[in-house]
Amino acid sequence: ITLYWRCDTSPGDDYTVFAHLVDNDGSVVAQMDRPPLQGDYPTSVWEPGELIQDQLAIPLVSTTQRADQYHLQVGLYRSEDGTRLPLLDETGQRTADSITLALQ
User: Fold this and answer.
1) What's the half-sphere exposure (Cβ side, CA atoms, 13 Å) at 78?
2) CB of 59 within 8 A of CB of 41?
3) What's the confidence (pLDDT) of residue 60?
4) Residue 7: C-alpha distances to residues 58, 62, 94 (Å)
5) How far is C-alpha 26 from the chain's CA centre?
6) CA 19 to chain centre
7) Which of 40, 44, 84, 102 is geometrically suited to a Cys-Cys bond with 97, CB 3.0 to 4.6 A?
8) Parallel, antiparallel, or unpaired for β 94-96 and 51-55?
9) What is the rounded distance in angstroms from the CA atom of residue 92 to the CA atom of residue 77?
10) CA 24, 27, 76: angle at the middle one, nearest 5?
């Protein structure tokens, strides 16, 4: 998958990307966790407004389920303690700690 990251302010901390393939029962069936850009460009040095293109591959196990029986959860967590970076709405209220994408 290709992820595009853009920050409004410099993150300051180093975060790890997580991409989890989850089935309809909520079980993680495949995942990839790693620093953005294979660790070559840590989030602590990202500049506000900069667009970062980050490609990663999630190793899949053969399955007979259809793609619509899965969804992909993507987000960032602080490398040092595992705290997930929250998603905020337009008023600054925390809404989640990952983005969920449907597969087709």
Assistant:
1) 10
2) no
3) 78
4) 24, 36, 16
5) 17
6) 5
7) 84
8) unpaired
9) 19
10) 105
pLDDT, block means (10 residues), the chain with 104 residues: 90 93 89 93 94 91 69 92 91 91 72
Q: How far apart are CA 62 and CA 29, in angstroms?
A: 11
Residue in this structure with the two tokens 């966790």, named with its chain if needed: 33
Distance CA 30, CA 49 (A): 31
- Residue identified by tokens 């995942």 is 31
Cβ contacts of 98 within 8 Å, gap of 6 or more: 18, 20, 73, 74, 75, 84, 87
Backbone phi, psi, residue 97, to 5°: -125, 15
3-state secondary structure of 68: helix
What are the tokens at 40?
A: 């070559």
